[in-house]
Amino acid sequence: MNAPLNHPLPLLDLDVLRTFVAIAETGSFTTAANAVFRTPSAVSMQIKKLEDILGRSVFARDARSVTLTTDGEMLLGYARRLLSINREVVSKFIIPDIVGVVRLGSPDDYGERVLPHVLKRFAQSHPSIAVDVTIDQSINLRRRMDDRALDITLLTNSYKTSAIGAEVLLTEPIVWAGAKGGCAHLREPLPVSLWEEGCAWRAGALEALGREGRNYRIAYMSAHTAGQRAAIMADLAVAPLPKSFLGDEMVSLGAKDGMPEIGTYNLAMVVAPDASAPVKAVADHIRATFELFRETGKF
């Protein structure tokens, strides 16, 4: 019900809006509850309060999913703007005015999938820090760090190796990715899509195939994640990918499919030892992002 015009309009609670946005972005009340550090029942009460204030339903719920209603989609844009303005205002008074440029390196896979979200949120809380990104292979990024051409870099390492001075952010299984309903894994020799030399996922995959004595051919080679995904989804080849990288059109192939286990890999971060305040701020933000991912499975 709309509020009478002769009464002041109610104020929306920013904490409730933060919860609303978290649910909209994750598609789950439980996952959103973890992200905002509340119980699922508390989150449900917040949304009921929001819907009572607005007199509209903002989510359509069924047994398996949560989706925005038309009113919810409209509210989402306003909620994001209000939260952004709040961050900007609070940062002016609470967060020190850190100014500077940070040179950040990342492998292509995380540069494409994760960094855009990370840097967007960082820019909202630290508008005076510019982040210049270099995308390259881990072996080249390590060299750039050694040459002091980067302030921070992310690196992917085999589970058997670790970079000196690196902080492990994530350890995750590498799986064989194939097209949903595809048959590439049944072909002989096995068509494989791989990255160039120096990739931790490539090394683990080839070692696994060699250990099992499986005949294979490198049917597709690309230095970019998008190229690997294209080969998988077209059922031209199978490819080693982190489990969290599987999309809706992909499946994980295992022993029942005749595919050998690959193992795990580490995603690590190296920070310059003489890190400035802006560099430390970026590093802390990256750490927080991966802590959230380990808890919720969402970036």
From TrEMBL:
HTH lysR-type domain segment(s): 12-69
Signal peptide coordinates: none
Gene Ontology molecular functions: DNA binding; DNA-binding transcription factor activity
Ion transport keyword on record: no
Cytoplasm recorded as keyword: no
Top-level taxon of origin: Bacteria
Pfam families associated with the record: HTH_1, LysR_substrate
Chain ranges passing through the membrane: none
Family: Belongs to the LysR transcriptional regulatory family.
Stated name of the protein: LysR family transcriptional regulator
